[in-house]
Amino acid sequence: MAVSSVPTSVRVKSDVYVAHPEKKVTLYFVVTGFVALLIGALIGPLQALNYAGINVYQYLPFLKSYYQGLTLHGVLNVLVFTTFFICGWLLYIPARSLDKRPSMAMAWTIYWIMMGGLGMAGVAIIANTSNVLYTFYPPLMGHWAFYLGLALVVVGSLLTGIEVVRMWLSWKRENPGKITPLPAYMCLLTWLMWLLASLGLVSEVVFLLLPWSMGLVDGVDPLLARTLFWFTGHPIVYFWLLPAYVSWYAMFPKQTGGELVSDPLTRLVFIFFLLFSTPVGLHHQFSDPGITPAWKLVHSTLTSLVAVPSLITAFTIGASLEKAGRENGGRGLLGWIPKLNWRNASFTAQALAMFSFIFGGAGGVVNASFGLNAVVHNTTWVPGHFHLTVGSAVKLSFFGIAFWLLPNLTRKKLFSNGMALASSWLWFVGMMVFSVGMHWQGILAVPRRAHVSNLSANLVGAYSDGVIPRFLTGFGGVILLFAVILFFTVFFGTLWGKRVHNEDEVEIPWAPAHATPSNNRILKVMDHVFIWWAFSAFIVAAAYGPTLFNIITNTMRVPGWKLW
Amino acid sequence: MLNYEKVNQYEFLWISFFLLMSVGHIVLIAYSLALEGPHIATQVTRAKPTELLEQGIFANPGVTYLERPNRAEVVGVAQAFAFSPAEIVLEKDVETTFYLTSRDVIHGYHVQGSNINAELIPGEVSTFQYTFNRTGEFRLACNQYCGIGHQNMLAKIIVVDDLDEYQTAQTASTTAMTTPATNTPAEAVSSTSDTTVTTPPADGEMLVSAAPSDWHDIGAQVYSNNCVSCHQATGQGIVGAFPPLAGHTPELVSVEGGREYLKNLVLYGLQGSIGVDGANYNGIMPAWSQLSDEQLASTLNYVLTEWGNEGSLPADFELFSAGELAEARGTQHTGIEVYDIRQQLGL
Q1: How far is the C-alpha of A457 from the C-alpha of A467, rounded, in Å?
Q2: Which of A287, A444, A455 is nearest residue B118 as measured by Cβ atoms?
Q3: Nearest residue on chain B to A450, judged by CA atoms?
Q4: What's the confidence (pLDDT) of residue B68?
Q5: Is A387 a catalytic residue?
Q6: d(CA B252, CA A240)
Q7: Is A238 a catalytic residue?
Q8: Which of A84, A225, A415, B336 makes the best surface tag, with the fewest CB within 10 Å?
Q9: Interface with A, mutate which of B121, B128, B192 (most A CBs under 10 A)
Q10: For the whole model, what pTM was predicted?
Q11: Is A284 one of the annotated active-site residues of the chain?
């Protein structure tokens, strides 16, 4: 018969995606992101060992310098991995939450645009043309393909955001008067935040870096470029963090048998992030002379405000967990903690992510304090800090999500829950040890991003004062190497495992929210997302307008340099 | 049991507490800035990085002691991969105003154990005040990634009780020191001699007969402070970016115009892709005109005689003199013009 001539494997394979074709594109985004992370994370221990005084780079013929390795590490881990994962995750969740299909043609176009960008930037870095790190401050000049490639990755993310907004609008038309389901609401606000916040980076690349690196203009104003970069550079951390929050609020309580304590408060948190994520970037430029101290203080103040939604999150999630733990029989002040679902790798990875974020957040408050910042600015304290936030809170959350999302997308069983648990704990412990070392060295004024294991002969010993923190940094890096190996064994083991056809889909662990019918009116106000978006644009314009106007009307273009 | 009413109560307390904390936090920040804000860099004026030589104060980086013992001024220039001045001597409890800028890319200026932490952005002049209230030697590090030699961009600030006493002691230990706190104090030479300064090779060679010479020591010192990050201790350079000096520099003095080219190269830098032995090098040579004539001449001599270069020198080669460099300062060039000069050498 004609039908039976179709090979069984092909037919069955496509069956997986029949009900939800968005699963396939989500899988592509997620897997590409994790492959980037694998490469980036394998370079990480080299960086850690550098700060322990051990120069491994001299033995690696494929990396021409520490700075090339560091560029790869940073770009792959925080720009490529995050963006790819988020484009999959924050497309899939709203689609499932609204029960809408994204345009598959659009989704695949976005994927291939981003792959093209990744390829260009990757070749530019590997060819040693663009050792400018992931902050790429001019006048250090990378190859135009590097900038264009990264820009395409960002463009892909913006198109994904627009696609999600389109799905939501169409859901609204079909469900007049209904309140947006909470998971979709969180995703939507994250995308709206990013659609505004990315303006800085996009204009930096399009109007300054691309014409300059292509030789069309003879220089670039470094302060303008920096200011545009940090316009996006701070909110980008919320673009990484909020997708983790989506999981923390919408699924995580369920994974330990509980429920979310407050739906309206969750929406309020996301509105707070939409309003205050962006007008805070000047706190990365406290040491830049060309910006008025008064505006730096304003941004320092606004940064305190953006800590508030994270503190509410700490409370809400904490309360959800405590409630679940007590219902499982937990007694006493902390007795509910052991009653949580610690045997589940997805739960554990995210719980550890949250715990790291307490320290990451505390360090962040130090960074954002105008006065204290002078002690730690551009020291190893800063990478110590963001390895707790993006390196632990975000990464471990994405690991935890992957532990159920991969089986959900592929109908394959998680390769090993035990190994997944072990990788989460090792990652957590490794990052903690590494970060203690990095923070500590930072207080000793050791500069970040420096190949200190390769000082010229007359300078050897310049940083020998911090023996213990140097050891901790290196040791943390070695632990992390084992965590990486374990995690990716689970990841690829799952991916290449056997498909289970005769069972139902692995469920998305939607957490029920405590019902709050009396607040319906508030929910309706909150659902007018474009009004909130306009508010947010207004605050950003007020917080950045004068500074940007001042810089743009006083630009001084300086020539580019390639110093590697 | 935990019920929702209780949760709401606690939540209200929690949020109120943190809003209060935030307000307190901001008040404390404002208070600390009012108390010791002057260490924050502000922009008083701007300076074109390509024209720093003509920009008055930055043509002569160094320390000026104003109305001693009340105030001092530091004028500093950063460039890949060195600070000028590389050693700053200050008196304790003296209010010091820093004027700092960069000649090429963004550098950092972070002094260990102090609140000095500024970005040096080309085109901007970072200005701030600081008063050291304890004596000692403080590490000054570039903390903004600036290229392959970033980690070697280190200098120091020495804070002393009495400047006169310190200078007398220094003059007694070395005769080469002319002004306080200009770059590359001769005092440091002895400390590096075991690693970077090699003993002059065998007798009988025409050049070495002049050794043991000051130029060798000065050149070795300048080289290890300023050149080694790019051109490496072995003189081999870095593939694709910075050309080798070993084996290549004798070629340059052998061709017509090469001697002039080398003087212009160290004074004004070079911008453009050059080829050496079939390989391309795209890095940029910074200008080093803030170094003294003697330092530049000594460094050229050092490079031309190190790593076996000496054997390949033309028979009629003569050492560079400070006077020659002073003369070359008469005609200024840009890095691009120096590149053109190199292209005309017909290598």
Answers
A1: 20
A2: A287
A3: B151
A4: 67
A5: yes
A6: 54
A7: yes
A8: B336
A9: B121
A10: 0.88
A11: no
Spell out a b/e string for A55-89, using b for 16 or more CB atoms within 10 Å of the CB, else e: bbbeeeeebbbbbbbbbbbbbbbbbbbbbbbbbbb
Helix axes A395-410, A82-98, angle to 10 degrees: 50
Residue A14's pLDDT band, with cuts at 50, 70 and 90, is: low
pLDDT band at A273 (very low <50, low <70, confident <90, very high): very high
Residue of A nearest to B79 (CA): A563
Burial of residue A438, with CB atoms counted within 10 A of its CB: 0-12 exposed, 13-18 middle, 19 or more buried: buried
User: Is A514 in contact with B4 (Cβ distance < 8 A)?
Assistant: yes
List the catalytic residue out of A387, A411, A439, A470.
A387
Res. A519: pLDDT tops 60: no
Q: What are the backbone angles phi and psi of residue A399, rounded to the nearest 5°?
A: -60, -50
Rg (Cα) of chain B, in Å, rounded?
A: 25
The DSSP H or E segment spanning A84 is helix A82-98
Of A271-285, A300-314, A374-388, B178-192, minimum mean pLDDT range: B178-192
**Other Cβ atoms closer than 10 A to B336:** 13
Whether A73 is catalytic = no
Query: Over the stretch A458-508, which tens digit does the pLDDT of each residue have?
Result: 788 888 888 999 999 999 999 999 999 999 999 999 999 988 876 677 889
Q: Which helix (H) or strand (E) holds B30?
A: helix B4-36
Q: How far apart are CA A398 and CA A34, in angstroms?
A: 10
Assess whether the previous peptide bond of A469 is cis (omega < 30° from 0): no
Assess contact for A296 and A285: CB atoms under 8 A.
yes
Cβ-Cβ contacts under 8 Å, A445 against chain B: 110-113, 139, 141
Residue A375's nearest CA partner among A287, A443, A438 is A443
Q: How many CB atoms lie within 10 A of CB B35?
A: 9
> d(Cα A141, Cα A129) in Å, to the nearest integer?
9
pLDDT at A450: 95
User: Residue A317 and residue A323: Cα distance in Å, rounded?
Assistant: 10
B272-283 pLDDT tens trace: 788 888 888 877
**Cβ contact A253:A317 at 8 Å:** yes
Closest partner residue to B32 (CB to CB) among A131, A223, A371 is: A371
The residue-averaged pLDDT of A48-57 equals 93
Query: B209, B181, B230, B218: which is closest to B82 by C-alpha?
Result: B230
Q: Which of A96, A143, A226, A449 is labelled catalytic?
A: A449
Identify whether the C-beta of residue A564 lies closer than 8 Å to the C-beta of residue A67.
Answer: yes
Determine, for residues A371 and B105 on separate chains, whether the beta-carbon distance falls below 8 Å: no
pLDDT one-digit tens code per residue, B212-250? 468 888 898 888 878 887 888 889 887 767 899 998 999
**Mean pLDDT, each 10-residue run in order, chain B (347 residues):** 76 88 88 83 83 75 79 90 87 93 93 94 93 94 93 92 87 54 36 34 36 76 83 82 88 88 91 83 79 90 91 87 89 86 85
